[in-house]
Amino acid sequence: MKRIPLAAGNWKLNKNIAETSALLEEMLQGLDAIDGVEKLVCPPFTSLETAARILRGSSISVGAQNIFWEESGAYTGEISPGMIKELCTYVIIGHSERRTYFHETDDSVNRRVKAALGAGLKPIVCVGETLEQNEAGKTDKVVRAQVMKGLDGLQVEKLKDLVIAYEPVWAIGTGKAATPEGANAVIKDSIRGALSEVLNQDLADAVRVLYGGSIKPGNAASFFCMPDIDGGLVGGASLKASDFVAIAEAALE
Q1: End-to-end CA distance of the chain, in Å?
Q2: Burial of 146 by CB count in 10 Å (0-12 exposed, 13-18 middle, 19+ buried)?
């Protein structure tokens, strides 16, 4: 089944408004020239409006890095889906850094996914095991549970725009990447296996699954040529225009 590759840049806690403008202007022409790959940048909340303005009319989408599940109320510091849906197409949910530092759980991921879909946003749901879980042979169990609990209770027809990102926690920001074959096996067996239980088989085959974890221009093509990897959720390399353009080009090739 043909799935359109997605090159998504997660800027994390980087770039103020002026820096966002400069980086987008630097990468805009190169990214916009790439056909056949969906391109996405996810800057901090403070730069979403700037990104949406600069990228309006281009082929590059904008995403947020997180949302809260309530639309309004006494939730100091939180951002609701309705506050960003005019600026964004996508939202990252359940990144391992959110799970680790801010104690997000499969339950809170599930609530965020429901809120995103209710607002018409496309969720990129992150799953992945720690080094300890990996070495204990628990990767399949952990990843399957994250997928199934994260999507629990959702109507199948609402999940056509779902994206999953497999990010082994031990490979994020460490310089260590999983092997392409190893990542593909987890995606094929654990993630698509879980999706086939939550969804019907056709939808499970249609969902795009990205790899994330120390993706660079030098190793991107080796991941993207794997049959079950549909692009990347890119961290540090998305903060350098030439690197992110090269990674998007690798997704096309």
Answers
A1: 17
A2: buried
Token duo for residue 200: 């019907």
Catalytic pick among 38, 104, 129, 167:
167
Please name the residues in contact with 171: beta carbons below 8 A apart, sequence gap of 6 or more. Answer: 177, 178, 213, 214
Domains with residue ranges and CATH for the chain: 6-242 (3.20.20.70)
In this model, does residue 253 exceed pLDDT 90? no
Given 95, 97, 104, 249, which residue is catalytic?
95
Torsions phi, psi for 11 (to 5 deg):
-80, -15
Rounded CA-CA distance 132/130 in Å is 5
Average pLDDT over residues 29-51: 98
Judge whether 71 counts as a catalytic residue. Answer: no
DSSP secondary structure letters along 41-77:
EE--GGGHHHHHHHHTTSSEEEEES---S-SSSS-TT
CB distance 211 to 229 below 8 Å: yes
Q: Is 95 a catalytic residue?
A: yes
Rounded CA-CA distance 165/163 in Å is: 7
pTM exceeds 0.90: yes
